[in-house]
Automatic annotation (TrEMBL):
NADP(+) binds at G181, K182, S183, I206, I247. It comes from the Bacteria. Coiled coil: none annotated. It holds the Pfam family THF_DHG_CYH_C. The lineage of its organism: Bacteria, Pseudomonadati, Pseudomonadota, Alphaproteobacteria, Sphingomonadales. Residues 21-136 form the Tetrahydrofolate dehydrogenase/cyclohydrolase catalytic domain. The gene is folD. SUPFAM superfamilies: Aminoacid dehydrogenase-like, N-terminal domain, NAD(P)-binding Rossmann-fold domains. Catalyzes the oxidation of 5,10-methylenetetrahydrofolate to 5,10-methenyltetrahydrofolate and then the hydrolysis of 5,10-methenyltetrahydrofolate to 10-formyltetrahydrofolate. Belongs to the tetrahydrofolate dehydrogenase/cyclohydrolase family. The keyword Nucleus does not apply. Pathway: One-carbon metabolism; tetrahydrofolate interconversion. It comes from Sphingomonas rustica. This is Bifunctional protein FolD.
Length: 313
């Protein structure tokens, strides 16, 4: 399907599924629980969890994300350390900062906002973050622990997806799950988390042949392809649960833009539950960042090996 065709087919009658999963409310509740746990940690250990956020350059979207993360950190009672670097920052300079943050006992979590300028190798930077402080869950050590079920920090968006699913699914064992998207940030880790719950998991992408037919057999669909209106109503079987990770900007008639997901929610009146865009996965990603920071602080304070948990709060 071409992009113009997809955009033209987005506006459809508003038919709601049985459950519209409210990620905003769930995230707010999670942040409240995290704040209570932070207060307990401060009272019992004297340690306040600290999150360092590094932004290189002036990307407007990245700036918005960083401000939101810092604001939520404050709401949870944590300390935030903001580092804004110029667009011309060298890879060596950024790696030196990462080294300083790794050694700083007041910093329990480190997040480097992506994308980075062209002169910086993002992989090298993410690999330089101490695994115990890698609250994004992108370090190869944490990826390896997730894949083997042996602990570590779980990437925030996949962790949030599982929490959203937990609100409507009690027993995962034997369910068929289809993940659309193969990224290291969402697709692969969410597939591993579903597999851990003993789902039968199929990982697909927009180049998968007969994609609609594959999706039609799923009890759970996680759409993370970054393609607006990719998943149509006739792709989803009655009673399925759909998690829409897509955040896509498409044109409006007035010349502006609006945000839509990968799924045409208005066509899913036959689904059991669907996450909206916006207001679904997005708020949970930031809340799970705070959950990971709290976990990292607890692990570092206790000196224990990072724990493996399915959900926070």
């Amino acid at each position: 399907m071409g992009s113009s065709e997809a955009e033209a087919r987005i506006d459809l009658p508003d038919v709601r599924p049985s459950i519209l999963i409210d990620g905003t409310a769930l995230a707010a509740g999670l942040v409240t629980r995290i704040a209570a746990d932070v207060a307990t940690m401060v009272r019992t250990t004297g340690v306040t969890p600290g999150l360092a956020v590094v932004l290189v350059g002036r990307d407007p979207a990245s700036d918005i994300y960083v401000r939101r993360k810092i604001a939520q950190t404050g709401k949870a009672g944590m300390r935030s350390f903001e580092h804004r670097l110029s667009e011309e920052t060298s890879e060596a300079e950024l790696l030196a900062l990462i080294g300083q943050l790794n050694a700083d006992d007041a910093v329990h979590g480190i997040l480097v906002q992506l994308p980075l300028p062209a002169q910086i190798d993002a992989g090298a930077v993410l690999d330089a973050i101490a695994p115990a402080k890698d609250v994004d869950g992108f370090h190869p050590v944490n990826v390896g622990r997730l894949s083997t079920g042996t602990g570590g920090l779980v990437p925030c968006t996949p962790l949030g997806c599982m929490m959203l699913l937990d609100t409507v699914i009690e027993e995962y064992r034997g369910l068929k799950a289809v993940v659309i998207g193969k990224s290291n940030i969402v697709g692969k880790p969410v597939a591993l988390l579903l597999l851990e719950r003993e789902c039968t998991v199929t990982v697909t992408h927009i180049a998968t042949r007969n994609l609609p037919d594959i999706v039609r057999g799923a009890d759970i669909v996680v759409a993370a392809a970054g393609s607006p209106a990719l998943v149509r109503g006739d792709w989803i079987k009655p009673g399925a649960v759909v998690i829409d990770v897509g955040i896509n900007r498409v044109p409006r008639e007035d010349g502006g833009t609006r945000i839509v997901g990968d799924v045409v929610t208005a066509e899913l009146g036959h689904a059991r539950a669907v996450t909206p865009v916006p207001g679904g996965v997005g708020p949970m990603t930031i809340a799970c960042l705070l959950a990971n920071t709290l976990q990292a602080a607890g692990d570092l304070v206790s000196g224990s090996r990072p724990s493996h948990r399915r959900q926070a709060g």
